[in-house]
Design brief:
The protein has helices at residues 11-16, 19-26, 40-46, 119-137, 161-164, 173-184, 190-194, 210-213; strands at 2-7, 30-34, 54-58, 68-72, 78-81, 94-98, 103-108, 143-148, 187-189, 203-204, 216-217, 220-225, 234-237, 249-252. By secondary structure, the chain is of the alpha+beta class. Strand 6 and strand 7 (103-108) form a beta hairpin. The longest helix is centred in the middle third of the chain and has 19 residues, at 119-137. The chain is globular, with a radius of gyration of 17 Å.
Length: 253
């Protein structure tokens, strides 16, 4: 099995930049998209030429904002939206697909914003999300949690850690603690599990031509509930796939 996660920064824009060809090339069993910026109908319409996948999508109340989707060759047994509590569920940020042998949670975590104006909300979100994931993982089915988590966990995950620390959204101690606490609660960062010292990024700021100089951040992850990492055969970041300011990440098992 192969799972891919990709923040497409607008699925309709990404389709125009070659997303269907990338989907074909990646040849994944499950593909999780974030920041679709589209309704479920618009996602299905954008991916009309992509064959062989069931499509489940979740959109924000605000048009053209946020949004997540899961493509899967096997139809999920059930699909759930949100993480419980209305205060976190109006932006289409979490979609959960339950299959016979695993549960896939696809998330687009809120950015703390310019001037860290949304950092308090981000911390509330992290706490609610962790409670949701821990509850899911308490069952017998392994949980795969993936998406754009909008945080660089360690200094190795960001090209310029010192000037960004506690000043830039995505690299404050509060956000770092959020992902650390989730890992301590029973999840494994698959990329770091397989590649503890590899420097590789999944997002680059478009305003500064950062991708060309590889001044990036690793903010896209695949985490798995503890124990399932023993079944994972590979974890990877596909820097060569274009079409967004992010690139895909994934695992095989």
């Amino acid at each position: 099995m192969k799972l891919i996660s990709f923040n497409v920064n607008g699925i309709r824009a990404s389709v125009k930049k070659g997303l269907p060809d990338s989907i074909l090339a990646m040849d994944a069993d499950i593909i999780c998209f974030q920041e679709t910026k589209a309704t479920p109908d618009q996602v299905s319409e954008a991916l009309a030429e992509v064959q062989g996948y069931h499509i489940a999508a979740y959109s924000a109340e605000k048009a053209g904002y946020s949004g997540t989707a899961v493509l899967s060759r096997e139809k999920p047994m059930r699909v759930d939206h949100g993480i419980g509590g209305d205060e976190h569920n109006n932006e289409g940020r979490v979609i959960t697909a339950t299959f016979k042998d695993h549960i896939v949670v696809n998330a687009y975590i809120p950015n703390s914003g310019q001037g860290l104006k949304r950092l308090d909300y981000r911390q509330q979100w992290d706490n609610a999300l962790r409670a949701y994931l821990v509850e899911l993982a308490s069952g017998k089915i392994p949980v795969i949690f993936t998406g754009d988590l909008n945080v660089a966990h360690q200094a190795i995950d960001i090209a310029r850690p010192k000037p960004n620390y506690n000043k830039t959204a995505g690299y404050t101690q509060a956000e770092i603690d959020g992902i650390s606490t989730l890992l301590e609660a029973g999840f494994v960062d698959t990329f770091r599990h397989f590649h503890p010292e590899v420097v590789k990024y999944s997002w680059w700021n478009q305003r500064f031509n950062s991708r060309a100089t590889n001044v990036g951040w690793r903010i896209d992850y695949v985490l798995v509930s503890k124990g399932f990492e023993k079944k994972v055969k590979a974890a990877f970041i596909l820097n060569e796939i274009m079409g967004s300011d992010h690139c895909p990440v994934g695992i095989e098992w």
